[in-house]
Amino acid sequence: MTPTPTPTATLPATLTAALALLLLPALPAAAQQVDLELVLLADATGSITAQEIAFQRQGYASAITHPEVLAAIAGTAYGSIALTYVEWGQADSQHVVVPWTVIAGPEEAAAFAEGLVTGPRAASGRNAIGAALLFGKELIEGNEIEGWRRIIDFSADSANNHNGPDIAGARAEVLAAGITINGLAVACRGCAQSWSTPEGLQQAFAERIIGGPGAFVVTAETEGTFAEAVRRKLILEISGLHGHPVLAAGMAAPAVPGAPLAAPRPDN
Hints:
Layout: H1 13-23, E1 32-43, H2 50-64, H3 67-74, E2 81-88, E3 94-103, H4 106-118, H5 129-142, E4 145-156, H6 167-176, E5 180-186, H7 198-208, E6 217-220, H8 223-239, H9 245-248
Parallel strand pairs: 1-2, 1-4, 4-5, 5-6
Antiparallel strand pairs: 2-3
Helix pairs in contact: 2-4, 2-8, 3-8, 5-6
């Protein structure tokens, strides 16, 4: 007697299709597109007191929520920017106070500002400017955001580099990656450096730190002009005016009382 063949089990077509999809290689998620990726690198070295840390953060919090800054964001090609705030110290001490945040309106800006004023201080030590610049580059290249423009906004009360990678090498690496470096020179009180004057510090930033198309320095000479300097600088960066042909030709941008702009570097 010939045995009856056992029927071959078949899967429903929908289940077969679902299993086939599961076996496909995962595709990378599309990067979120914004007009600008901006790293705010703020000085948290030993010369900066806890009170000054709080003052700096409040200045940035006030600036990012200011109606003029929000209007600049709304006026960009994508209507949004990506922002992160980092405090830097010695070569192994960089701290992300507020991680990458896409800001398209007042709600996101307010949340970013809240994170700024409530986050703990963690960075410390003597100046490692080169390490800070390279850390900013890593943050830009390692996020899941695609910015039409990419900028590191570096602030400090000195142009000294006491440890870690040298400034010139780090700066060259950042610029080679297509990232612009702008500067906020915070007038140092009681410093002994030759650039301890606002004019001297601004010149040191212009010669040693900033770079890229239309790169510029804003100098905040007093506590009273700090928030205004930050706000104007953010507006220039967000709106793209830092790369305007007039600025690139070496002419000053609209002046802020107590916060003049240095001419862009001629070698960029």
